[in-house]
Amino acid sequence: MTASASEWIIWAAAVQAAEFLRRELWDEVTGVLWRSYCEGRGNVPGFAEDYAYLIQGLLDLYEATFDIRWLQWAGQLQSRMDELFGMRTAAATLILGRRTDPSSRD
Known about the structure:
The protein is mainly alpha-helical. The protein contains 4 helices and 2 strands.
């Protein structure tokens, strides 16, 4: 199935938005996603929801464009989100049905 002209326009706008977010709100060195931008980056780091919604958007963008950079960046963000907010431990607990923290006692 070929994309219509309007779909290409939407995809191009989505790519531009993702590029802006990566350039202006993602700090590659520190691994911090910043929460807002208004005439410059704000000083509040992103919340778990910010990471989650951006990750979902990047996965959607990858599915639309098959451009691997969006999938790779989503993976980076997910890893960082896990570190910052403990999501990996929570998910593993749900999947495994037990605590996965080696320092905890069963």
